[in-house]
C-alpha cells in the first residue's frame, strides 16, 4: 500500500508538470493617465514565462491594434500564484482590453480579456501616425501631435522594425512646438530594405507631466528595388539593348537626330495636334514586361523640346483612356503633368527649347515623384485612388488613345524600370550616363569577348585604349581600366554596359553578361 501511495504521488507530480499553465482573467488594480496595474493568478506547472497582450479592440484580430509585452516575468511551481504587472505608455482616458499569456515547456495558455481604462488627461497626445511616402529603402512618416500651451519639454520617438515585438531602430522627432495639430515629417532611412514589411509606432513623452503616450502600430511595405526592364539608347536603332526584346515601330518613322554630341543618337518626334494619322506616326513598342496595375515603376529619359506652346507635348504614355488606367507625362510651356487619366497632377518646371533635360518619373505605389537633371523637384499624392495601369503598348508622342496627343521634341536614352529608383541612383544615372556627353559619341568599333564570361574579358580595337568603364544597369560605375584585358570575376552576375574610349576620343558601348 505504501509503495502504491508513493507511485500515485509521483504520478500526480509528473502529471502536474506535464501540462500547460493555468491562467485566470486579469483584474485591474489601479490606473494612472499613462499606465494600468493588473493582477492575475497563474499555476505554472514548472516554470512559466509571462507576457501581456493589450489591444484597443476586444476581438484581438487586427495586428495593428495589438501590443504584446513579452517576458514581463517568470512564475514557478505547481500551485496558483497571484502576480501583478504594470503596463506603461498607454493613451490617457482610453479603454483597453488586456490578456495574460503564460508559456511553459508543455504549451501556452492565454486568458480571456478584461476591460481596463486609463485616467483622463488634457495634455499631450498623438492625433495620427501615417506612412505617406515609402520607397525601396526609406519611408516618410508623418506624425500629428497635440501639445498644449505651456508644455515645453515634450519629446517624441518613432520605433520601427520588421515585427511588433523586436523594434530595433529609433529616431527622435525634432521641431515639436505647441498646438492642436503639430505636423512633423520624419524620414526613416536606417536599415530599411526593399520589398519588406515594417511596423512602427510613436512614443510621446512629457517629463514634467509624467506622461508616456504610445500610439498604435502602423504598417508599411517597401517596394522592390529598381530593376531595368528596357533601355533604348536610340543610337541609330529603335531597339532595347537589354536582354528583354523590344522595338519601337512607326510607319512614318521617327528620324534619328543628334543629341548635341553625336549624330543618330536620338529620335525626333513630330506629331501634329491635328494629325489624324498619329496612331501610325507616333513611335509605339509592345513591351510585355511594362509594370501594370499598381506596381512600382520608374521611367527615365532625356528630352529636348522643340516647341513649348499651349499644346501638350505627350512625351510618353501607356495604358488606356480610362480613369487611373494610364501612365504618362506631358508638358506645356508652363506645366509638366503626370496623368493617370482623370487623376492628373502637375508641377511648374522651367523648361526651354534649347537645353536637354534628364527627366525621371517614379511611382512607388502611393505617389508620383519627379526629378529633373537628377534633382528632386516635386512629390504628388494621388487624390482619387492608386493606379491600375493596363496594357503593354508604350507610346512616344501621343496619349494612350488612338487620335489624341501632340509631340514636337527630341528624345534619347529611354529607360523603364520595375521598382523604385532611389535618389542616389537617379543622380548617378544623370551624372554618369545621361549627362550632356552621350554614352556613345563616335564611330568606334570594338570586339568584346568572351561574352558571356565569368572572369576575363578581352577588347579588340584598332587603336590604343584610353579608358574603359563598366556600369551597372542602374548607372553606377563598378569598374575602370586602361587595359585591353580586364578581370571581372569580382562583379556580381548580371548585365553590365562596357564603355570604351580610344586614344582619339571615339567612344562606344556594348552589353556584357557576367555569369
UniProtKB/TrEMBL annotation:
It comes from the Bacteria. Keywords: Signal. Residues 448-513 form the Secretion system C-terminal sorting domain. InterPro entries: ConA-like_dom_sf (IPR013320), Secre_tail (IPR026444). Residues 1-20 form the signal peptide. NCBIfam families: Por_Secre_tail. This is T9SS type A sorting domain-containing protein. It comes from Flavobacterium proteolyticum.
